[in-house]
Amino acid sequence: MNDMSQTATGNPSVSIQDLDLSFGAVKVLQGLNLDIAEGEFLVLLGSSGCGKSTLLNCIAGLLDVSDGQIWIKGKNVTWAEPSDRGIGMVFQSYALYPQMTVKGNLSFGLKNARVPKDEIERRVARAAEVLQIEPLLDRKPGALSGGQRQRVAIGRALVRDVDVFLFDEPLSNLDAKLRADLRVELKRLHNQLQNTMIYVTHDQVEAMTLADRIAIMKGGEIMQLGSPDEIYNRPRNRYVADFIGSPSMNFMDGHLENGVFSTDELRMPMDGYEFTARQPGGPAILGIRPEHVVTGELVSGAPVQHEVTVDLVEPMGSDTLVWAKLGEQIFRIRMDGQSRVKPGETMVIGLDPSRASLFDAGTEDRL
Amino acid sequence: MANPATLGATGAAMDASRGQMSSDHHRGPRPKKALSRRNIMLYGVLIVVSLYYLLPLYVMIVTSLKGMPEIRMGNVFGPPLEVTFEPWAKAWSQACTGINCDGLSRGFFNSVQILIPSVLMSIAVASVSGYALSMWKFRGSEVFFTILLMGAFIPYQVMIYPVVLLLRNMGLFGSLSGLVLVHTVFGMPILVLLFRNYFASLPVELFKAARVDGAGFWQIFFRIMAPMSLPIFVVAMILQVTGIWNDFLFGVIYTRPDQYPMTVQLNNIVNSVQGVKEYNVNMAATLLTGLVPLTVYFVSGKLFVRGIAAGAVKG
Ligand SMILES: Nc1ncnc2c1ncn2[C@@H]1O[C@H](COP(=O)(O)OP(=O)(O)OP(=O)(O)O)[C@@H](O)[C@H]1O
Ligand SMILES: [Mg+2]
């Protein structure tokens, strides 16, 4: 039966069913369900300690699960050895074997699997070519730069010809520039190989740029699973809304009645906003992203206009972050880098209800 | 009203900054006084302490190179008037214990026969145990480790007689293999602790990566962990070589006289009551016995320090 229902939705490459994991009395993951499609790039995103690495280690078989099942490629691998699961893993600290050359590192797993010699040669050569590490093959990891080491670590997963790649914050030890470069390379690699990839990070930019789908985790649970666009534009609850986006979303406490959101300062008819339920009302929280606030000439076109006082200006080159006061409330506004505003000035901003988010003040779920 | 006060304060500040003018040329590292009181104290203490340790060694060396007539003259600190290696030769091959007269050489070869298998076995067993305890945590591994550690705190004296019984039941009492077994077992607590802590300081991700790569228990140990652990192997070797070579108690209890290790042989030579006391031979014998640990220290001292440091940094 189970098999039938899976084929109906397209056989998932990795399927996690009711997964529990606890370290002694500490429950890290509870009843977690997740299906990852063939060739999908899934990013697990969440703050530190929310259980991302733990989940990845469970999938890899490096931690014994307390309950639940893990299926990879239609096989139940819950009790299988890590090497028999058809996965390759890349670690944050590279974890290259320091006493072996790059070539030794790449071929170690293949030798363990008793792959014939010429086949090993062929696969190592191919991985080295894809990752452009051919000149480094005879060096020891100690003689490589951080970026080169991470490439070798990726190569080690690559040569194993596996269906699923697991990445645990592979880029977080690199400097910003290199991180951006390797990020693009990873994306290209995924386009080329079309493997399933599960990628753990707490860098939003990585998540947004790489992912087909993002799973936002908090306290061992998945808060929202969806495309980057969905997560950014239609966050399911206040936590996700706050977590995604930098600078983060502005929140205002108020009241929703007959489709109009109001605070002491502001009255905002929510025309064009897609409510999830039919006629919600009562205490609510309005969320507006700093980059969705319009200023200058564009204000006249905005459905809602309001006056604010500039409090602080942070020029960042490409754009300028303005901390303004809307009544008593601090309000972040992202403006063009060339705009000249000074603290103390007043200006008029325009808000668009169709790009805002509304949350219930009690449950903090999206309305 | 507050103005004059503020002015006064600024004036004082300016005066102070003018006073610091003379330090304007200061640049680069601050010069250090070579003969500061601190340095005199430090080097003074170091010199006194090293004299305290080196003087007896000096006396032993010069005495072992003198003939008996010269020793009887009584100048303990004087260098030998006539250097002779006779005492060394005698200590090695002719000195008498109460039982036989073939010198220390017999004890030396006994000690070597005890030392080599004991060191190899104890390090082999301890390194694998330490690796298993740190990487492959099994149910009860912590309890096991705690019990093992407690072994390090039980006084040897308590265990001497039970071990005699045990060895006798196993038919190993009085044989070299029995002593080897005793040395191996008694070395376990401290060695396992040493290895476990070292392996625990290696990155876990390395172990995880190897498991994903399909390596098993022994492959991970031999191909990945052991090659990274040379310093700690050297530390363990030095501890065991010196410990086992210098052992007296177990040697005297668990072996028969013709298998006594060098330390016991030395004791019997020095304390033998027949004939005159040959101080020069005794000194030479003592130096000969101490030569092995000394060589080990000299050869591997640098590695030893590095190993200790490596263990300490990541604790
Ligand atoms: N071996 C362990 N024993 C007990 N608790 C653990 C163990 N490993 C992890 N934890 C706990 O499980 C929780 C999840 O840890 P995990 O490493 O999965 O976090 P993470 O989401 O990967 O965080 P980060 O982004 O910092 O890597 C944490 O609260 C952590 O303290
Ligand atoms: Mg982590």
What does this structure look like?
The complex is a heterodimer of chains A (367) and B (315). Chain A is of the alpha+beta class and 367 residues long. Chain A folds into two domains: 12-236, P-loop containing nucleotide triphosphate hydrolases (Rossmann fold, 3-Layer(aba) Sandwich); 242-360, OB fold (Dihydrolipoamide Acetyltransferase, E2P) (Beta Barrel), CATH 2.40.50.140. Chain A contains nine helices and 19 strands. In chain A, the strands form four sheets. A six-stranded mixed sheet of chain A has the order 6-7-8-3-9-10, with helices on both faces. In chain A, α3 crosses α4, α3 packs parallel to α5 (146-158) and α4 packs across α5 (146-158). Chain A is elongated, with a radius of gyration of 24 Å. Mean pLDDT of chain A is 90; it is low at 1-8. Chain B has 315 residues and is mostly helical. Chain B has two domains: 37-84, no CATH class; 106-261 and 290-312, MetI-like fold, CATH 1.10.3720.10. Helix content of chain B is 72%, strand content 0%. Chain B has helices at 3-19, 37-64, 68-72, 86-93, 105-135, 141-151, 156-170, 176-201, 204-212, 217-225, 230-246, 249-254, 262-270, 279-314. The termini of chain B are far apart. The relative contact order of chain B is 0.12. At the A-B interface, β6 and α3 of A face α9 and α10 of B. The structure holds adenosine-5'-triphosphate and magnesium ion. Adenosine-5'-triphosphate binds at residues 23, 26, 28, 46, 48-54, 202 of chain A.
